[in-house]
Amino acid sequence: VIAAGQPDRTVKTTCAYCGVGCSFNAEMKGNDVVRMVPDMSGGANEGHSCVKGRFAWGYASHRDRVLAPMVREHITDEWREVSWDEAIVHAAERFRAIQDQHGRGAIGGISSSRCTNEEVYVVQKMVRAAFGNNNIDTCARVCHSPTGYGLKQTFGTSAGTQDFKSVAHADVIVVIGANPTDAHPVFASRMKRRLRQGAKLIVIDPRRIDLVRSPHIQAAFHLPLRPGTNVAVVNAMAHVIVTEGLVNEAFVAERCDTKSFAQWRDFIALPEHSPEATEAFSGVPADDVRRAARLYATADNSAIYYGLGVTEHSQGSTMVMGIANLAMAAGHIGREGTGVNPLRGQNNVQGACDMGSFPHELPGYRHIGDDAIRAQFEQAWHVALDAEPGLRIPNMLASATAGQFHGLFIHGEDIAQSDPDTKHVTDALRAMELVVVQDLFLNETAKYAHVFFPGTAFLEKDGTFTNAERRINRVRPVMPPRTGLSEWEIVCRLATAMGYPMEYRNAAEIMDEIASLTPTFAGVSFAHLDRVGSVQWPCTERTPLGTRIMHQDGFVRGKGRFLITEYVPTDEKSTRRFPLLLTTGRILSQYNVGTATRRTANTVWHPEDVLEMHPHDAEVRGIGEGDSVYIASRKGAITLHATVTDRVPPGIVYTTFHHPDSAANVITTEYSDWATNCPEYKVTAVEVRPGD
Ligand code: SF4
User: Fold this and answer.
1) Residue limits of the 4Fe-4S Mo/W bis-MGD-type domain (predicted)?
2) Which of 13, 87, 351, 672 is the most interior residue, by most CB within 10 Å?
3) Where are the domains of the chain?
């Protein structure tokens, strides 16, 4: 796939790594890529790129890639290569047999935020129409599901409010639980440009991320909170805004539900929410919280950007609502340079959620229990749909362990490595009668699979990704599927083999169906995207060029709703036995569980996951730089090498999760967000001692 020499043609497509969604020109020689050149006209990147998108695409031709479908009876058997027809019929018959024996609800599916909107759409349609239940969930469950829930409750729509360009108008930038220079590098460059022009920066993160202090940038405030105290800190900032008369009264009166505001104001003004009351357990000096809150509230334009350090907590949804409360109280929403902006981890987290991958929501975030909405889909799909929401991923796994759930279709997600409490996940997979994995590689999850459908790399896909700013970008194939079938074709054939005929001539037809059933996508088609480049939804007849900034004249739900955000400490607490708190994150050169980047030259920059420890914590344990360390939690133990650094404060340790050997999720806990079950990856009580 990698060629030398002069290209003979160029195909414009979209990076398949992070939620920035950079556009690239794939310069081709025959069916081989010569190089990937960032596209100057790309709406998200305007000619910029990072080390992942520019260089880490060779995994598409890695020798580990599986190109033929495979089956096996037991997970201890050798894989047997078979034809597509045999693999699909085999999977369909076994899914059917499970349903005959255990009922319609005994099987389900997981869609992937790595795949195109069109692929995700057909997966959820297959589950609802062919499986006959709503047991469909997505890997967004374990990252940004609290964003979907929290923003819908407060603003009325499950999406970020701004486009990336808007940051150029921010006077104050607040970064909460995110590390943009590593995880969203091209957007981080835009942010840094604005900071170098004089915008002020507030970072709320236990770790001193690069943005806090980098060439020509110095954060005005770094609030190094103790993991798990997010809600207390955002409440304390809101307390300052309310009690010091900094509320934007005109905005609240005109744009917000004043009854909910009055209740919230009474709640947040209580002395227990003051910075002084929270300092002792959050670890953040009260004076810094006060001054940061004043800075945020009094600037002309303040914008909040947040990441998984907000969502992956037992109070992830509460924290998203707390951020929304803050933005509404200060009136920093609905115009350039403001807003509430989730930085999505994967390339198509936004799209996977938009496409109806949640067990309670059809495409466009419409509830499955709404009779009128369900009737619309039943008419279009010619099938009766179940009105009851289905199982979420954690519920499917728990039901499998309990012997009540028996078959799972897993599309492009390595749950055995990426989901928390690995033993719980692998026990559940082992308990199932049929696990079908559709992926590029025999990943950790495939060790527990009975059928393997080889998937396609982004270079072989035709469709769209939706990035963190709601931008729908075209993904164009630079070569035909090396496996012989597009991923949407595999899913359609499986649905058909199960008795529900699903046929499309091409991916464009799938998008046409999405547009016909999803009001926010009503104006989207491949032809339109090819004409205008990309659009940010809502894209309708009235807004054919999309919507850069949401909630400008009114919130999607009408009036913005304030919600009570009571701080409830997580059950995961440090103890004498486990005195340190572990938190996790990503590094620039690698991507998530590393399935793709580990199979490229990028791996030279980060060949292993390491444990960051404060010098004091290292010294008292007799641990030096590079030493092997043993890390134990209530759930298990792993071994890493130590990096001794004051980037982390005393009492906190930090690692990444890119390498299966280090298996960070062996030690993460079973706790999850109260509203969405998003796992609490960011807080694990551990003990660390010398590895020997
Ligand atoms: Fe790809 Fe994200 Fe890097 Fe852009 S910033 S090139 S989308 S990984």
Assistant:
1) 8-64
2) 351
3) 87-143+347-518, 145-341, 580-690
- Confidence tier at 205 by pLDDT (50, 70, 90): very high
pLDDT band at residue 273, thresholds of 50, 70 and 90?
very high
Residues 352-380 have a mean pLDDT of 96
DSSP string, 334-386: SSTT-SEEE--SBTTHHHHHHTT-STTEETTTEETT-HHHHHHHHHHHTS---
Q: Which of 18, 57, 164, 187 to mutate to test the pocket of ligand 1 (most atoms within 8 A of CB)?
A: 18
Answer for the pair 176, 230: CB distance below 8 angstroms, yes or no. yes
Distance CA 574, CA 68 (A): 48
Identify which of 14, 22, 192 to mutate to test ligand 1's pocket (most ligand atoms within 8 A of the CB). Answer: 22
Whose CA is closest to atom 5 on ligand 1?
A: 186
DSSP secondary structure code for residue 181 in this structure:
H
Q: Answer whether 18 contacts ligand 1 (Cβ < 6 A).
A: yes
**Distance between Cα 1 and ligand 1 center (Å):** 20
DSSP one-letter string for 146-173: HHHHHHHHHTSSSS-SS-GGGGGG-SEE
CATH architecture of 145-341: 3-Layer(aba) Sandwich (3.40)
Rounded distance from Cα 530 to ligand 1 centre (Å) = 21
CATH number 2.40.40.20 given to 580-690: yes
Distance 58 CA to ligand 1 centre (A): 15
51 CA → ligand 1 middle, Å: 8
The pair of three-digit structure tokens given for residue 495, joined into one six-digit string: 């649905």
Ligand 1 atom, smallest distance to 347 CA: 7
Atom 3 of ligand 1, residue of closest alpha carbon: 50
Q: Whole-model pTM?
A: 0.92
- Two tokens, residue 349: 């987290």
Question: Does the pLDDT at position 462 exceed 60?
Answer: yes
The CATH class for the domain spanning 87-143+347-518 reads alpha beta
d(C-alpha 6, C-alpha 134), whole Å: 50
3-state SS, 226-289, equals CCCCHHHHHHHHHHHHHHCCCCCHHHHHHHECHHHHHHHHHHHCCHHHCHHHHHHHHCCCHHHH
pLDDT in tens, 576-611: 999 999 998 887 777 777 777 778 777 777 778 889
Minimum CA distance residue for ligand 1 atom 1: 53
Confidence check: pLDDT of 1 > 60: no
Q: Determine what percent of the chain falls in helix, strand and coil, rounding each to the nearest 5.
A: 35, 20, 45
Q: What is the per-residue pLDDT across 11-46, written as a single tens digit (0 to 9) for each?
A: 999 998 999 999 999 998 888 888 899 999 999 999
Q: Using the structure block, give the residue that is written with the tokens 């800075």.
A: 295
ipTM of the complex model: 0.99
Which residue(s) pair with 536 in the sheet? 471
| Distance from C-alpha of 398 to C-alpha of 591, rounded to nearest angstrom | 28
CA–CA separation, 124 vs 490, rounded Å?
A: 13
- Is the Cβ atom of 186 under 6 angstroms away from ligand 1? yes
pLDDT-derived band at 439 (thresholds 50, 70, 90) equals very high
CA 587 from centre of chain: 16
Measured CA to CA, the distance from residue 606 to residue 345 in angstroms comes to 19
Q: Distance from the CA of 25 to the center of ligand 1, in angstroms?
A: 13
> Closest ligand 1 atom, CA of 184?
5
